[in-house]
Write a structure and sequence with these properties.
The protein is globular. It contains 8 helices and no strands. It has one domain. The chain has helices spanning 3-16, 20-34, 42-50, 56-77, 85-107, 112-121, 125-128, 139-154. The two termini are 19 Å apart.
Length: 155
């Protein structure tokens, strides 16, 4: 999933629980649940891991960060989500698994367990339906699904 989805879900969790710790933990868990579903970046990730000069994944990450930095303030301003410390910890819990994965891919030292678990849970829906490989979607379709998901969650 995009960071935009993970951050939004984390913010919603934080807006609906009473403590920052609970927001962080539930959002952290939600990250892995959301990543079970195919979301269209599988080919970009594979290409990036095979050739770190591949720019597609870098562009997607840049677009994703900008979208997150626009969407969250809009949600706070429109009062769809309250801005408070519990919401902030929900956002952090929702996105931190991807940050850990990125740090592991750069260093090959830190957060190895999180990296392995993340890869284990990623796109497992295909295996649930009995296929031998994970389901893969075209990027455009995956992005459309994620945009619809954000809309359904918020409205």
């Amino acid at each position: 999933m995009l960071l935009t989805v993970h951050a939004t879900v984390g913010a919603i969790i934080g807006d609906n629980v009473s403590t920052p710790l609970l927001a962080f933990v539930l959002a952290f868990i939600s990250h892995f649940i959301l990543d079970i579903f195919p979301h269209g970046d599988e080919e970009l990730v594979k290409a990036y891991r095979n050739d770190f000069k591949n720019k597609g994944m870098i562009y997607l990450i840049f677009f994703d960060i900008i979208a997150t930095l626009i969407l969250l303030p809009v949600l706070f301003y429109s009062q769809k989500i309250n801005f408070n410390i519990t919401v902030i910890w929900g956002i952090i819990g929702g996105v931190i698994p991807d940050i850990f994965v990125g740090l592991y891919e750069i260093t090959h030292k830190y957060f190895r367990r999180t990296y392995k678990f993340h890869n284990f849970t990623h796109n497992k829906l295909g295996k649930f339906f009995g296929t031998k490989t994970n389901l893969s979607l075209p990027l455009k379709f995956g992005l459309l699904i994620q945009i619809i998901l954000i809309y359904l969650i918020l409205f």
